[in-house]
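SEQUENCE-TO-STRUCTURE ENTRY
===========================

Subject: a protein chain together with a token-level encoding of how that chain folds.

Sequence line: the amino acid chain in single-letter code, read from start to end.

Question of interest: how does this chain fold, as expressed in backbone structure tokens?
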Amino acid sequence: MPDSLKERPLKQHGLAHLLAATRYSLSGLRHLLGETAFRHELMAGGAMTCLLALAGASAGQLVAFAILVLATLCVEALNTALEQIVDRLSPDYSEFARVTKDLGSFAVMCLLLANGLFAAWVLWTALW
């Protein structure tokens, strides 16, 4: 059945709304776990957090790095959503689709660079 013919779920309120929102979020996470880039970023973030802890990073530095990793995963989720929308609206090659996807990719790259710079700074200060 086409998406346009499917019935929209009823609005929830109170605790039911919270539970429904949690289900939707977990469904999004399940989808993201099928994305190679998301899995790579998740594993790299976990591995680097362990490395920073072993190098003697402070609790504040570890929390700051965890926030950076979570921000990266959030932007990756938004980039994946953007790609889904573009693929739906522009199934054939188009300059619009290419530029839109490139911009989403650039946003992820900026956060990956921020993660790398912060981790390098923490390692530098912890080890030297």
